Amino acid sequence: MNTAIIALGSNIYPQENIIKARQVLTNEFKLLKESHYVSTKAIGPTVQPDFINGALWIQTDLELESLKARLKELEQSLGRSNDAFKYAPRTIDLDLIVWNNEVVDRDFYEMDFVRMAVLELCPQVKY
Asked: 3-class DSSP state for residue 23?
């Protein structure tokens, strides 16, 4: 079994979309722990609603690339558009941040709220 920490974020009906994403993820994967959720300002063009962000620590039998692909599929099924620019408002953002206790996404280093959520879930993470 593998473990992963998935960052969740939304700024389009964020409370509703975070709940939907959490339900989908916990139905598909074993939930080990959940971080607190925080409100953050948008990065990039800031004339948009604030985000709600948090993270889930899950257990999965999927391999790394399969999990990444599955998260993209789940984003689409939850209403995320693929043609949006990087910092566009979004219904849901699911990012694989930690894989088997090792950081695999630069957002950990670049976004304080991501790092805080990860360290809340897994203080022993290797970074």
From this structure: helix
